[in-house]
Amino acid sequence: MQVRKNKETFSDPVPAHWAGKDALQSHVLNTLSLMFPAGEAFFIRSVKHFADRVKDPKMQADIKAFIGQEMQHSMAHERFNQSVAQNVGNMDWFMWLFTVPTFEWLEPFMRNYLGHEKLHQWALALTAAAENMTAGFAQSLFQPGELEKIARPDVRELYAWHAAEEMEHRDLAFDVFQQVGGDYVTRMSGMAFAYGIIAAYVALGTGYLVLKDRNFPWSTLPQQLVDLFTKENSLGRVFLEGMVDYLRPDFHPSQQPMHPEALAYLEKMAS
To answer: ∠ CA(7), CA(31), CA(130), 5° rounding?
Structure first.
């Protein structure tokens, strides 16, 4: 595992509907992208808290690489978000609602005032579940024809790079969670909270973007909603299938092999 940089600047404003012909999926991804920087900072904090418990040199190196990768993802998506904002409008209210109650109120209260070690494990369980979710999204992006739906080369490069690295480090938080004594009940409660809160905020942000979108194809909305949860490689279907898979007591992220196209992409970046 290594840290790679995405240097796309998105100097030309990114259109609101950039994810192929599906306007709804574009708004879902725009909302997720807004959530990535703060979410990935939380993932870093959750893993870093237990870094001194890990004795295996390779895993120690992977933790450092994981932190570096997540930092790079955050910076790239901040640039992307600023570019998209020129076409979708100001979302400061959403960012306040996502970050302040979750990371400025709830997280410090749980970590500092309750102070129980199980709560740190629970935060790590949230991270492991969320990483499984994003890795599932990433796997779907490398299915035949999916990346090609993104017409803009700079946006396509951003999502290919981010997705490939999500698959590359998908095991890390889960493995650290197991090493520090995480149990199935904690893993499941972390999953329930992670999947629930992400789904709620994505629904809120997407709904707002759709309602203010003057060019949204309203006549196709019912079919877009159906496709979002039933069509192969659609975000909703991947979300639900990943959640069901994660429920298995013997689950491990490595049971889903990394897509060969993602491996080829990372090898190309290294060359």
So the answer is: 85
